[in-house]
Amino acid sequence: MQVSRSGFYYWNTKPVSNRSKQNNTILLDIIRFFKRSHRNYGSPRIYKDLQEDKIQCSLNKVARMMHENGIYSKLSIKHKKVKIPRNNVGFTANILDRKFDADHPNQKWVSDTTFIHTRQGWLYLATVLDLFSRKIVGWSMSKHNDTALVIGALKMAIKNKPKEQEVLGLPQ
User: Fold this and answer.
1) Which domain covers residue 91, as residue numbers?
2) 123-134: pLDDT as tens digits
3) How far apart are CA 94 and CA 88, in angstroms?
């Protein structure tokens, strides 16, 4: 480095400027609010917290200080929008017709699938719900969201129901 010895010692021994002291206190407050938010807040929310705490600084300064010190909020996972096919050929008629109450157990079932993000990736869950008791009577989990997932949940529900009862839409 092309620095004179006297210049280096001057830089090394000079007192900390007022602006540096102010920036350090703001940075400590940013870190405090960031940790309080469980590392979820980005610069706009941190800036709002600083303003509520009567600490004067700009939004750009908060964003710059967070970027320079490697303080980043957790990024949420974007979900893909599901495309609904326009042709309804091959779909079963709506037998339930939005009547979600049942007089007896195992009279009406409904099913749904959902996805859960795990450390190993996405995991899909299909459930079959009895509308009388609102209990899950069958479920299935898989790495793939396909018909085998739903069929597995339906097979478990059919296996657990009494033989003599008939469920809406299921043949005996």
Assistant:
1) 77-172
2) 999 999 988 889
3) 12
